[in-house]
Write a structure and sequence with these properties.
single chain; 208 residues; mainly beta; 15-stranded mixed sheet; 2 helices; globular
């Protein structure tokens, strides 16, 4: 099969009360995705930064390594998954995570689901920020087309995709032609933008 080209995705992070407050930057390669998330929830609040990398064989459900680094909270975790499914997290074997993959991989599973025109995808999700916690049963499901407002105030018709974790609705994504244009992360939202200049426009200098 033909490999997808390397691409960089820029998503502006917006909080309902604070407004433009941060960014999500994804560098997507055929067998690796690096996600950097940075935001500040208002003046005087600390800058939140996470740098995450996942390696896989072309399907993130068959991941081989992840690294999670949140320098502000001095939180670091790493994991490896062997060909036989054995998972090590921070150096220890974790048998219950053999069939799970990290929440940061949700973006790749969603993209594949849209490309394959599937109505729903179920999987087991681990939290890379707290990999010692139990994995959760996850499902991404299409819920229909609806009008939604974009960053510039325009309204578009987009397909709504809902993430359900252990029976609870959590993240919501709106997609047009197989591309995520907006997401709601249980309150704060992110919007696809064209380039890094647009991404950084109006941001706190320490965040940008």
């Amino acid at each position: 099969s033909e490999e997808l080209p390397v691409r960089t995705e820029y998503h502006a992070f917006v909080d309902r009360e604070v407004g433009r407050c941060g960014a999500i930057l994804r560098h997507v390669e055929p067998r690796r995705m690096r996600t950097r998330t940075v935001f500040r929830m208002g003046e005087g609040a600390p800058v939140y930064l996470v740098d995450h990398v996942v390696d896989h064989d072309g399907d993130v459900r068959r991941w081989s390594r992840f690294a999670y680094d949140a320098p502000g909270s001095e939180t670091q975790h790493s994991g490896t998954r062997d060909a036989d499914g054995t998972v090590h997290v921070d150096g220890s074997v974790v048998p219950e995570l053999a069939d799970a993959f990290g929440g940061y991989g949700e973006h790749l599973v969603l993209a594949q689901m849209l490309a394959d025109d599937e109505d729903a995808v179920s999987y087991l999700q681990l939290d890379e920020s707290e990999p010692g916690e139990d994995a959760q049963q996850a499902e991404l499901r299409r819920t229909g087309v609806e009008a939604t407002e974009l960053l510039d105030g325009s309204t578009v018709d987009a397909e709504r995709i809902q993430l359900v974790l252990d029976g609870r609705s959590t993240n919501t994504h709106w997609c047009i032609d197989g591309v995520v244009v907006k997401s709601d992360w249980c309150g704060a939202q992110s919007f696809l933008v064209d380039d890094v200049e647009t991404l950084c426009a109006g941001l706190d200098p320490e965040v940008a």
